[in-house]
Design goal:
The chain is an alpha+beta fold. 66% of the residues lie in helices and 14% in strands. It contains ten helices and seven strands.
Length: 336
């Protein structure tokens, strides 16, 4: 419906503007408007033959010689028909043999040909611009959908990974200490609720993300017990800033996952806000001093990819592995 309305408006504007131009020669707006309506059909024909046959059949398929040939032939045929229309109008309707004779001359033929060329060129330009706009919009929509699918896949990769680790930790603690295991299970229920209802949203309040991180740290602190020295400095935030869910947790999870087994180790976590919307996460943890135990996996890789998709040019991340320590420094500029 919109496309049909657009065509109607185009031809209305054409008739109006061309009639206004003809008034300077004939000094009769009603007469020239009637003339342009009566002689409109050949122009309709050349425009739509060009737009819906010649362009897709030849130009869009890069058959340039064929396009030029058929367009020139069409222009000559339509111009001849239009000349005959003008001649008949002035001879038999307007009863002006002098002007009718003009359109039956070479000058009249060239005048109609010029008008036809202008109309074809203008309509083609509008058509090509519209096609380009819709093509770019379609590509933008496809790209947006692809990014949405990729983000969903990244979240889907993270969530089962995290859930598996947490359930494994609770299972082990229930065997060692039933009371602490129950505490972990309560914390885990809060995390699971967060996973089910909040991670499907594009962004959530920052305070919810921080609460979820605290629950996770509590679970891991109970599981690791006296082996781990865990230092947490977390801002008490209750403002309106929002963040993509499950973006910070994989970094913290990575620190617990790759800490040394069977020996004492340390984990330091800092979450702070600078300049109102500048979030800073710093996580460091001890690692076994072996070359083949550099922390890796889907967690950090997915975080980096999500940062590129969700916070382009609004984040900085630094990852520094050393023989005995692993450090991640993340900065994000958030919006409320």
């Amino acid at each position: 419906m919109k496309e049909i309305l657009g065509h109607i408006l185009f031809w209305f504007a054409y008739l109006l503007l061309w009639s206004i131009q003809d008034v300077f020669y004939f000094n009769d707006f009603g007469g020239v408007l009637k003339l342009n309506i009566v002689t409109l059909f050949p122009f309709l024909a050349i425009v739509y033959v060009n737009l819906y046959f010649l362009l897709p059949r030849f130009l869009f398929k890069k058959k340039y010689p064929q396009y030029i040939l058929f367009l020139c032939l069409s222009l000559l045929i339509i111009t001849g028909i239009s000349v005959a229309n003008h001649y008949a109008y002035f001879n038999f309707i307007a009863n002006d043999l002098a002007i009718g004779g003009f359109f039956n001359s070479t000058e009249g033929f060239l005048a109609i040909l010029t008008e036809t060329l202008v109309l074809v060129g203008f309509s083609t330009s509008i058509f090509l611009l519209r096609e380009r706009y819709f093509k770019e919009k379609m590509l933008e929509d496809i790209s947006k959908k692809q990014l949405e699918v990729e983000l969903r896949l990244l979240k889907a990769q993270m969530n089962p990974h995290f859930l598996f680790n947490s359930l494994n930790s609770i299972y082990m603690m229930l065997e060692k200490d039933g009371q602490k295991g129950k505490e972990m299970l309560l914390r885990f229920s809060d995390i699971l609720s967060y996973q089910l209802y909040d991670t499907v949203k594009p962004n959530i309040p920052l305070k919810k993300e921080i609460e979820n991180i605290k629950n996770y740290i509590d679970i891991e602190s109970i599981r690791h017990g006296q082996l781990a020295t865990i230092t947490v400095d977390c801002v008490a935030y209750s403002g309106k800033l929002r963040i993509s869910p499950m973006l910070l947790l994989p970094i913290i999870e990575n620190a617990f996952k790759h800490s040394p087994n069977g020996t004492t180790y340390s984990i330091s976590i800092y979450i702070g806000l600078n300049d109102k919307n500048h979030l800073n996460l710093k996580v460091s943890n001890s690692v076994a001093p072996k070359k083949d135990e550099v922390p890796s996996g889907i967690g950090l890789a997915n975080v980096k990819r999500r940062l590129e998709l969700v916070y382009p040019k609004k984040h900085e991340i630094s990852i520094e592995p050393t023989p005995g320590n692993f450090f991640v420094d993340l900065k994000i500029w958030l919006n409320d």
